[in-house]
Design brief:
With 728 residues, this protein is of the alpha+beta class. Among the domains are: 165 residues, Methanol Dehydrogenase, Chain A (8 Propeller), CATH 2.140.10.30; 257 residues, Alpha/Beta hydrolase fold, catalytic domain (Rossmann fold), CATH 3.40.50.1820. Strands 38-39-41-40-42-43-44-45 form an eight-stranded mixed sheet.
Length: 728
């Protein structure tokens, strides 16, 4: 049982309330930095406090912060204009009406704040455009109040032209153009059918590939590269809310593994309305493609696009993901020429932000350097052993990127033709940056918290305030390197625990899926949650196993053909290795919790290894691998019709009869990423096998659980479940 509460702990309900109120401690954190090319201005968004989600647009200039756009005032202006031109749509939806396009964009971005949550600028960062409650607003950084620009409908993803005279935006699936003085609103590309959109990313691009945009301005501002997306061939799914039977379900186009993808094509559209299709190749030559159990050489994925110094540059990937071509398009004719070609026997994966070009046109291209995913700048490769995470951008001929030598740390690096490669940050943590001129904004997550520093000429010139609340529990992780695979692990023990005072029930709280790490030298919401569970009397362990980023190509490939076994093995090995070092871990009482991939891992743990795991909470588990999208599943498991055994092996319902331990399944009923059918199918299989379990549905909740009354209560429900199941 729990020992008496010490003065080092807090009241059990206080932290969950704070966790929910602060939206996982994201409120009050500055983000989305843009540095002007001359380095004089820094734009960013940040909510007004650590507990208020209302997010203004801010300007940092001459060492001071200034609010450029206050959503509270602008929303009032909208409400007063209900009978005017600009209020002809959306006002009936509430204080911040959103179109379905904008709701979807925010869900893909996991956006939890309100107000000005995204913006774009002209070339000089003088003109800023943003959407608020479906309305288009423009503000200048050199003075003047924000101006509302009348539009043809609710606005998504507005972007000024490079010279700041025009703003492009998407509404109703159409890409339109309006002058920043409010005149000449006109369509540039209108959908020919209900299932066609212009200027938006499809589900797979935004959710799994990481491409959130669907159009790009030319440097001269006379044309745009525009994505046309046709989803008519994609499976139609319905996401309803059983708690509100009068509300019709949402219809989404979801490209589930083994089925048709959306068709994305590109065209160059001039501001006068001329259209030139980009002549993208349809297939890769068979003689150049790597062989595999399943081979599909159709170029179905537009992985990235940009239009900078050398013209439109597009990355295309085949359906089997083993071939990527980087192409440059002629904007006048639409003809393309190859810049580079990449193949891999498993899958081709680029660091985010690549490819890119410097001001003079030097290419920054992805490059596999030994076992590291890296980059090559012109003919110069990044240093050996450097795992490049993201290409941040260029300033003239200077290239900025993040990379890891040790997987628990991410540092900012730069490259210039005169000085070569330079490591900019050295403090342990996870660092990111935005650059312009000789100004660098460093966003640093360290063991002590979050800090944003402005550097000029390499020297500290000021800070941008972080208003986030400090967690009521202070994370006290012990970082470990365990076993023959050198598994990076965090161990959290109660602050009141004394060595030799007896074993504690163990709670594993990993993620351990592709695309995310939780074992880093940075304090974050998940380290605070782990410490809170520890303060309630648990030894909490988090391990990044095989498949996670930052450890090399072979580390990621280890989950090919089996998404569960290698990951689960790493969790068990880390658990046993930690228990050999710390007698605080009672291996007779081991629970595991998780959400999304780690929810799948948690459920899989009690199904496959009840000898190790004695209870699990599985939130939004991707239990049936055939129900997830093409890009993410086919990368690791191939095509389900060709390699059905991989899907059977990696899914959970086929093993339902193995359950002998307490299992709590949790799922948001509005989740359109890992749809509720995953949990419902697993629950049905468990019921059919006669295996007792519990299901907690969350009405009106999507994939991210962050709201008050849900996120806080869910933490307390998990705590109660583990206390009872593990006799804690």
């Amino acid at each position: 049982m729990l020992p008496a509460q010490s003065t080092a702990t807090v009241e059990v309900n206080a932290f969950p309330r704070q966790f929910a109120r602060t939206r996982r401690f994201t409120l009050g954190v500055p983000r989305r930095f843009t540095v002007s090319p001359d380095g004089e201005r820094v734009l960013f968004v940040r909510s007004v406090s650590g507990v208020d989600p209302r997010t203004p647009l801010w300007l940092y200039e001459n060492g001071e912060e200034r609010m450029l756009a206050d959503p509270a005032r602008l929303s009032g202006d909208r409400d007063r204009d209900r009978d005017g031109d600009g209020g002809r749509y959306g006002d009936e939806d509430g204080p911040e009406p959103l179109s379905e396009e904008e709701r979807t964009r925010r869900e893909r971005a996991r956006e939890t704040a309100t107000g000005v949550v995204a913006y774009a600028t002209d070339r000089e960062a003088r003109v800023v455009a943003f959407a608020l409650g479906g309305a288009l607003w423009v503000v200048r950084t050199d003075g003047g109040a924000p101006r509302r620009i009348p539009t043809a409908g609710p606005v998504t993803d507005p972007r000024p032209s490079p010279d700041g005279t025009l703003v492009a935006y998407v509404t109703g699936g159409a890409l339109r153009l309006v002058r920043t003085d409010g005149g000449q609103d006109r369509p540039l590309a209108e959908p020919e059918a209900p299932e066609v959109t212009y200027g938006l990313a499809d589900h797979t691009a935004a959710e799994s590939i990481g491409r959130s945009r669907g159009y790009w301005w030319s440097p001269s501002g006379d044309a745009l590269l525009v994505a046309r997306v046709d989803t008519s061939m994609v499976a139609r799914w319905y996401i309803g809310d059983p708690s509100d039977p009068a509300r019709p379900p949402r219809v989404i186009r979801y490209p589930v593994a083994g089925t048709a993808n959306a068709r994305t094509t590109l065209r160059v559209v001039t501001v006068e309305g001329g259209h030139t299709p980009v002549l993208l190749p349809e297939r890769a030559p068979e003689e150049e493609a790597p062989k595999g159990l399943w081979q599909d050489l159709a170029f179905e994925y537009v992985v990235s696009a940009e239009w900078e110094s050398v013209g439109p540059v597009i990355s295309l990937q085949t359906r089997d993901q083993r071939t990527v071509w980087i192409l440059r398009a002629d904007p006048a004719t639409g003809a393309v020429e190859p810049l580079s070609r990449h193949t891999d026997t498993h899958w081709v994966e680029f660091p985010a932000g690549a490819p890119l070009h410097t001001a003079s046109g030097v290419p920054v291209l992805p490059y596999v350097h030994g076992d590291a995913r890296s980059i090559r700048i012109g003919g110069v490769p990044a240093p050996a052993g450097l795992h490049v995470r993201e290409v941040l951008g260029t300033a003239g001929e200077q290239v900025w990127f993040t990379a890891s030598e040790e997987p628990t740390e991410v540092h900012v690096w730069s490259y210039g033709p005169e000085r070569g490669f330079i490591k900019v940050t050295d403090e342990p943590g996870v660092h990111w940056a935005a650059a312009g001129g000789d100004t660098l904004v460093l966003d640093s997550g360290t063991p002590d918290g979050r800090r944003v520093t402005v550097l000029r000429g390499g020297e500290p010139a000021g800070r941008i305030a972080v208003l986030a609340e400090e967690p009521l529990v202070t994370p006290r992780p012990v970082h470990l390197v365990l076993g023959e695979r050198e598994l990076r692990t965090r161990l959290h023990l109660p602050s009141w625990y004394e060595t030799g005072s007896g074993g504690l029930p163990v709670l594993l709280s990993p993620y351990s899926g592709p695309g995310m790490q939780v074992v880093t030298r940075a304090s974050a919401w998940y380290t605070a949650v782990c410490q809170w569970f520890a303060e309630q009397g648990f030894a909490v362990l988090a391990t990044d196993g095989r498949g996670t980023p930052g450890r090399g190509v072979e580390w990621q490939r280890a989950i090919s053909g089996d998404r569960l076994t290698p990951v689960l093995t790493d969790q068990i090995d880390a658990l046993h290795a930690a228990a050999e070092r710390y007698d605080a871990l009672d291996l007779a009482r081991v629970g595991i919790r998780g959400w999304s991939f780690s929810g799948y891992l948690a459920a899989g743990a009690v199904l496959h290894r009840p000898d190790v795991f004695h209870a699990a909470v599985a939130g939004a588990p991707s239990a049936d691998r055939r129900l997830y999208d093409t890009y993410w599943e086919e990368r690791y498991l191939g095509h389900p019709d060709v390699q059905p055994d991989a899907y059977e092996r990696s899914s959970l319902p086929p093993y339902a009869e193995r359950l002998t331990r307490p299992l709590l399944l949790v799922h948001g009923l509005a989740d359109d990423n890992v749809v509720p059918a995953h949990t419902l199918r697993l629950s049905a299989a468990l019921l059919a096998a006669g295996r007792p379990h519990s299901v907690l549905p969350l009405p009106g909740t999507g994939h991210l659980v962050a709201g008050e009354g849900v996120a806080d209560r869910l933490l307390l429900r998990e705590l109660d479940f583990f206390r009872k199941s593990l006799d804690a």
